[in-house]
Amino acid sequence: MADLSTTIAGVKLPNLLFNASGVCCQTKEDLQKMVDSESGSLITKSATFERREGNPSPRYVPLSNGSINSMGLPNEGYAYYLDYAKNYDYQSNKPLFVSLSGLSLEDNVKMIEAFKAANLPCVLEINYSCPNVPGKPQLGYDFEGMDHSLSVLAPLIEGPFGIKLPPYFDIAHFDIAASIFNKYDNLAFVTCVNSVGNGLAIDIDTEQVMIKPKDGFGGLGGFMILNTALANVNAFYRRLKNKQVIGVGGVTSGKEAFLHVLAGASAVQIGTTLREEGPGVFARIKKELSDIMIAKGYKSLDDFRGKVKTL
Ligand code: DHB
């Protein structure tokens, strides 16, 4: 095998692959499946202050080239994930990331204060891109609001942390977002991308939308968003100073994982393909990526990270 190890926010991962938050990570049983898999890390479901049931089902449906979902942030409440993080065996296990998605700045502050008080070696990923809570626009598309949130949360967290971002589609937006992120020294990584928000899937036979919440509108994931994900990874890789990018979106095999690293990713998360295939996906994609690297003569991720050639 080639060397697939990486370091994120100063924490060493035995390999670059882990779950995208939302998949296989809501309960302790789900998280144990991630621990038992060949992933290099694991991240918990985005937590809100209180437990949430989420939206009515069907709320996730696989499509021919990806998936659509409007889960509505079902989660056990932050105290559950704090308890998990407190009891996690950091010595003998892979690193743990915890995703927080407060419904207000105050909720994020309260959750972060609780994690800080526990003084744990887990890494926080603050989610600025949940598209599926009816009536709540996501902060990732509100640059002033996101800057204000970061100005409060970054000094509070103190240590290195990351943020989960929605996809951007305009070069001016890449520039504005990056100039905000570059103001915060302890913002160590950005995770690009969350689902492409508010797609619509329709069944031709029944002439019905395919998921129940939001009249069928939901976040798109899987192979259909690969090129949007690669663009966002590379756009932030080029613009961010002393920060890392975690790539997510469209990874179905070692080939797409390789492309994410070539675009600049330091780690790669897997969402839809993990949901469809189960945790065995990590062993498969590790092997496929390693085979590609060996065929190309690359020994480690550093040999080709961010080295995509332009014409
Ligand atoms: C949900 C979806 C997201 O894309 C996200 O970032 C957080 C939560 C959800 O619908 O549960």
Structure write-up:
The chain has about 300 residues and is an alpha/beta fold. The protein is about 35% helix and about 20% strand. The chain is built from nine helices and 16 strands. A hairpin with a 2-residue loop joins β1 and β2. About 50% of the residues are buried. The mean pLDDT is about 100. It binds 3,4-dihydroxybenzoic acid.
Summary of the model, kept short:
The protein has 311 residues and is of the alpha/beta class. It has 9 helices and 16 strands.
List keywords for this structure.
single chain, 311 residues, alpha/beta, eight-stranded parallel sheet, 21% strand, globular, binds 3,4-dihydroxybenzoic acid
The Cα radius of gyration reads 18 Å
* Binned strand content: 15-25%
Low-confidence runs:
none
Structural class: alpha/beta
End-to-end separation in angstroms reads 32 Å
Number of strands: 16
- Largest sheet features: 8 strands, parallel
What order do the helices and strands follow? EEEHEEEHEHEHEHEEEEEHEHEHH
